[in-house]
Amino acid sequence: MSISRKELIRYLDQRLSPERFRDYAPNGLQVEGAEQISRVVTGVTASQALLDEAVAWGADTVLVHHGYFWKGENPCITGMKQRRLKTLLQHDINLIGYHLPLDAHPEIGNNAMLAALLDIEVTDGLEAGNPLSIGVVGEFDEALSLNDLGTRIAKALGREPVLIKGGDHLIKTIGLCTGGAQDYIDKAIELGLDAYLSGEISERTVHSARENGVHYIAAGHHATERYGAKALGEELAREYGLEVRFVDIDNPV
């Protein structure tokens, strides 16, 4: 089965509503390749390793969370950027990327998928009053300790999280925002949540957690954002009968 590139982008834009977000990179088609699409590789980041996997499999499209052309980056097509673009253009491969829209989607977004994986019931957005809140607030069925939550995360994600103890309390309520959203701990503090989980951690995050009585969990930028692109690809396979393969390029960060 195959569909036109135009039809695929129309479907993705309708599903993810990128026009609603002020993002750091363009969402949608970033590099134009084949007109007809039948074989799609999904992944977190359009790294050279992911592109090489796509070429080896004969993919005509790469669909990722982290694409190219970020605000503030050097616009010159040299070095790593030249090699990546050359690979796509030489092999007529489309590059499609969705950043914040794929974080925020309430069904197949990174935050929603990670919450479901960890048995967190989403109750609200982390940004109170914002219908486009990127992060979410949720609850566990039963309160659990920080160490127990760490064990659950390690089992689900296949890597040990960094646990910063913010007190002796159990965790019933939690804020969650995947990727590099460690500074959203301030929002968790404002909401009086028991804990906050993101992908990365900064030196200042440790002090914020300890001094404000909020447990902090850094579970890995890559590890927390594997699920949106994968779910979106699986949806395309069901809807259009496309061949879709999720490729997880190992990343310890």
Index terms:
253 residues, alpha/beta, Udp-n-acetylmuramoylalanyl-d-glutamate--2,6- Diaminopimelate Ligase, Chain: A, domain 1, 2 domains, five-stranded mixed β-sheet, 10 helices
How is the CATH topology of the largest domain named? Udp-n-acetylmuramoylalanyl-d-glutamate--2,6- Diaminopimelate Ligase, Chain: A, domain 1
Point out poorly predicted stretches. Answer: none
CATH class category name of the largest domain: Alpha Beta
As a percent range, the share of helical residues equals 25-40%
The CATH superfamily of the largest domain bears the name: NIF3 (NGG1p interacting factor 3)-like
What is the name of the CATH architecture of the largest domain? 3-Layer(aba) Sandwich
Q: Kindly, what is the distance between the CA atoms of the first and last residues, rounded to a whole number of angstroms? A: 36 Å
| Averaged pLDDT | 97
Q: What does the model show?
A:
The protein has helices at 5-16, 48-57, 79-90, 100-104, 110-117, 146-157, 185-190, 203-212, 221-224, 227-240; strands at 3-4, 28-31, 36-37, 39-45, 61-66, 94-97, 121-125, 136-144, 162-164, 171-177, 195-198, 215-218, 243-246. 42% of the residues are buried. The protein has 253 residues and is an alpha/beta fold. Helix 7 (185-190) links the parallel strand 10 (171-177) and strand 11. The protein has a 6-stranded mixed beta sheet. Strands 2-6-5-4-13 form a 5-stranded mixed beta sheet, with helices on both faces. Helix 2 (48-57) runs parallel beside helix 3 (79-90) and helix 5 crosses helix 10 (227-240).
